[in-house]
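Re: How this chain folds, sequence and tokenised backbone to follow
Notation: Tokens come from a learned vocabulary of local backbone shapes, not from coordinates.
Start of record: The labelled sequence and token lines come straight after this line.
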Amino acid sequence: MTIPTIAAVGTAVPGNPVGQDDIRNFAAALFREGLPHLERLMPVFENASIEKRYLAQPLEWYRMQHTFSEANTLYEQIAFDLSEKAALAALSKADINPGDIGAVLFVSSTGIATPTLDSKLIQRLGLSAHTKRLPLWGLGCAGGVTGLARAAELVTTTQKPVLLVAVELCSLTFQRNDFSKSNLVGSSIFGDGAAAVVLVPKQQGPAVLGSYSTLFPDTEDIMGWDMSETGLKVRFSRDIPAIVREHLPDLLKQACTQWGIDQSQLSHFVAHPGGAKVLAAYSDSLGLAAEKLSGAYQVLRDYGNMSSASVLFVLDKFMSETLPTGEYGVMLALGPGFSAEQVLFQW
């Protein structure tokens, strides 16, 4: 039986690094004109556990309102460039000939392109014109884990290497004239970046052994986009950490039962760094020591929340810093739906 394994991860970020203090001061000036009691909300920047992020455009670009068409044109250009860089890095690290790739999964939720950017990526990378394509849109922060699960399944069915690419330009969805708390919170945590993963049908890295998906009924209002005349307007609830604390322990127990292992056998936790409060909820609800999520905290500190790409940055750090001992681990992420995604691996 084929067991898909993760051969390599490649990452890329845009060339506009910005410190958290600079973004805080920038946001304070913008939101002062339209958000009452702003001073009570500004600590969200200090409490985010973020030092630096990378943005698709220089900070001054966000001072003006832009049309959805303008922002989306930039998305198509910059997302493609970052996707190519991340994919080339992953292919090089995996020592895989691009022509051997059997399928490409392209994950994104922060811009729209038809044909999807994977069609251009296949041509630019020199993949076969017969490469299978599976673009996944709208999964938000859960997209990295979901994409990895679907990519592993494609490795099993095609018996060929599979390329997963996740790219998000969250900053381009910033709405200059949206003075909601959600927009302020989004400006305090979101960053931009891309990650690519090469999975192969042979033992070359962490083995992907299973996945577990959960959709919470009637929870569409918790996280997602509202479509406005100027583009994608962020929507998320302050209740997300509470939902994690209430439901995650049972969800992980259910997943382990399906996978046929005991929860105590899980040694590694590769979690999407959705925010400091979400990571704290992971630790509290699962009884995890802080070092178990150190990789997620470091990615959050250095890059912010890059939606679907973030957890793959954490995976890259985990693989570079962890020696294989044959122990089990789980990848965790939450996303619109409201949904939870889990992947079991062994490394």
About this structure: The chain has a mean pLDDT of 93.
